[in-house]
Amino acid sequence: MRIFKLSIALLSGLFLTFSPIAFAKVTGNTITLGSAISLTGKYSTNGLHTQRGYDFAVDRINSMGGVTVGGKKYKLAVKYYDDESTPARAAQLVERLILQDKIEFMLGPYGSGLTKAVAPVSEKFGVPMVEAEGASRSLFTQGYKYLFAVLSTSEQYLAPAIELAAAKAKAAGKSPSSVKVAMAFENDPFSLDVRAGVVDAASKYGMKIVIDDKLPADLADMSTTLTKTISLIANCNPKSFKAEILTILPLIKRLAVPMVAMTHCEAAKVQEKFPNAANGFLCPTQWVETSPNKDKYFGSAADWNSAFKAAYSKHYPTTVPYQSAQASAAVLVWKESFEAANSFDKVKVRDAIAATEMETFYGNIKFSENGNNIAKPMFMRQINASAKYKAVITPDDLTHPRKASY
Q1: Cα–Cα dist 257/229, whole Å
Q2: Any idea which architecture 26-153+289-377 has in CATH?
C-alpha cells in the first residue's frame, strides 16, 4: 500500500512537470504578447486608456490578416495582469509572464515609474519590450538593449510652452528674457524630467524662473504657490485673493497670468470638469488627430481617431486620450518587427525593432541606440471657450484669451 501511494504521488508530480504551458510565446497560430497594466489603483484611468489602445490595434491587425512569419499567418493576442498601479507588483508580474507563462514579447505598463520597475526584468531575461507610456528620459540612459518606446521623452512635454512664450514675446516687440516663469511639479521621476526640460528651454532664452515649487500631496491646495505667483508675476489684485484650500483650476484662473500649461489634462478631464476656468490653458500631448501622418493599417490620424471613438463611444464621447493612440502605435511596431525578422527568435526580433523606421498614424517612429523614439515631436493643445481642444502646432497658431501681457 505504501509503495502504491508513492507511485501515485510520483505520477502526479510527473504530470504537473510535463503539462503544457497555456500561453507560450507562439501557440498554434497565435502570437501572445504580455503586459502588466494598471487596471486598478492610482493609474487605472490611464491604464485602461492604454489597454484599449493595445486591444484596438490587435483587433485591426488581426482583421487585416494578422502577422506573417515564415510564410505562415498568425493572430496577435495580449495576456494582461493587473499590476494594481504598484511598481513592485508590476515587476513581479512581468517575471511571471516570462517564467511561468513563457511570454517572450512584451508591451509596456502605464507610466514611467512602473516602466522603470519592469525594464530590468525584461532586460535580465532578454525579452524585448515595446512600451508606449514610460516617457522618463532616465529610462534611456541605463544602457538597456531590449527596451523601446514609441513616445517622446518627458523633458519635451512642457518645453514647447516656453518656445511659444518666447515667440509671443518677440511678436510683442519684447525680449524673450523678459518672460517670468513660475513652476510647480510633483517630486517623482517623470515630473522632475518635465521640470528639467522647462529649465533647459527657459535658460536658452534667458528667462527668469521666479517660482520653483514642489506640488503638495493634496493637489487641491496650491494656495502657497499661487499666492507667491500673485505677488511676483500675476496681473491681479492680491487683496481679492484668499489663500485657502480651493479647487485648483478656478484658483489659477483668478491669477490672470498670460499663459498656463499643465500636463495630463485629458486624464484629469480638465476641460470637462472646469470648462470656464480652463479656457485658454495649454496641454502638451504626444499626438493630435490633425497630424498629417498616416499608415496602411489605420489610415490618417483622423481616421484612427474616428474609428477608436466609434469602438469605445461609451468611454470617449469627445476627446480621445493620446495614451490610447500611442498604445496602438506600439502594437504596430510589433507587427512590423515580427515580419522584418521573419522569426520568433528573441534576438532577431529585438534587432528588427531596433532597426524600425516607419510612419504611423501616431507619427514617425525611429529608435535611437538607447531605445527612445527620435522621430516624433511633442504637440500642444489649447482648451477653448467651448471646452474643446484646439491643436497648437506652431507658435503662430497660439491664441490666448487672457488680456495680460508679458
Answers
A1: 9
A2: 3-Layer(aba) Sandwich (3.40)
